[in-house]
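Journal club prep, notes for RB
We'll compare a predicted complex against what the paper describes. Inputs for the guanosine-5'-diphosphate case:
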Amino acid sequence: MFIDVLLGLQWGDEGKGKIVDYLADKYDLICRFQGGPNAGHTIVIDGKKHVLHTIPSGVFRKNVINVIGNGVVIDPIVMARELRNLEDNNINISKILVARKAHLILPTHRYLDMGSEASKGKEKIGSTLRGIGPTYMDKTGRNGLRVGDIETPDFRKRYESLRSKHISLGKIYPDIDFDLKAEEQKWFESLEYLKKLDFIDCSYYVNDALKEGKKILAEGAQGSMLDIDYGTYPFVTSSNTLTAGVCVGLGVAPQTIGKVFGITKSYCTRVGSGPFPTELDNELGEELRQIGAEFGATTGRPRRTGWIDLPQLKYTIMLNGVSDLCITKMDCLNTFKNIEVATEYKINGTSTKSLPYNLSDDGLEPIYTSLKGWDQDINDIRDYNQMPKEVKDYIKFLESYLEVKVTMLSTGPEREALIIKGDLS
Ligand code: GDP
Ligand code: IMO
Ligand code: MG
């Protein structure tokens, strides 16, 4: 058996949550392997919208086990709030398991995140301020606290020692308005709530499940262009968001990886700062923002919008070894007479299909191919054969350029608004 992977190919918010929820029916385990509550994965079931930050998107499927893996960073406050919300909606939380080796986000990690952003002036990353960067820094700096530490007798002492370090560090940043005492109280209360869940040794658990023939899907957070190593550094997040991150994030060997579902919107968005070559910083961009309801699921910030960028997608398909492409938000292009698709970049007069070292180069200009839009409502079509010719031409163009098959098309936020094209098995 293999572990299939589902992840975002752009700058996040590609609609991963919706597709994981759909596919979860076919899996025994859904495992988050990186990131933390900077993620916001939206799922719409029977007209009700749910947003998950830490909990895997398989939680709405009855028999699925949801694993929060080693590579994830957990804020007990956010997680307890999510668990309570789920319980209020009569969702069973007993099948959510947490890796003992996952790191904890302390209130002072958020305080440091805010301080670090405030100190950057105009060069802000646009972080979600959920404490992600400082927590991963403590992990690699070998200072962090992990879920398994909660059960040890000197946990409080170690917490206080790390907090003191953070307070000293915070002095290098501008003053931040932060009620540490109140946040700390919530944090410890939330830890008690977290203890309702089973803590596991993630690597043994997932490898044993594989041996037993269980079907496993790893759920990515963020997007490949936000990867710490291969994204638009420094405007990235602090984890490896790529397929490679699954191995260290869950404790599994590379040869256990099976299919890789890459998710992209039919256009492109980015929230936060950093380069975005096909950005439409104009009326058209605003139109896309309104049609696509492009406002962050975690922070509510307006997302930047632009056309789909094929050199960018080809790069992330390569990095991830994508076997199946899923295109979401097809319905959001219903009203466009023409759809622009970036097919190469011109950099200081020279054409290239490769991403340069610096994507924000002043001399960089995307070159577009214009495709005919379908100019009709496709939201209720459920059979690919019934799709207008223009949709099929658009898909064929993408498949031919990207050299990977499209197997899913999403035409609305609801669970059912999905077309399976070809063979998923
Ligand atoms: P994620 O972080 O990748 O899970 O994506 P988000 O949940 O942050 O953002 C995707 C948004 O698009 C959510 O509001 C979804 O409900 C919505 N969505 C997903 N697929 C579609 C689709 O095919 N059409 C439309 N109109 N909305 C979609
Ligand atoms: P999902 O899983 C979109 C962006 C932030 C910021 C940068 C660094 O919902 O797709 P961080 O909080 O990690 O320090 O922020 O990364 N970012 C996301 N953008 N979707 C996400 O997650 C994101 N998680 C982080 O906006 O630019
Ligand atoms: Mg999101």
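Talking point for the session: The CA atoms of residues 77 and 190 lie 5 Å apart.
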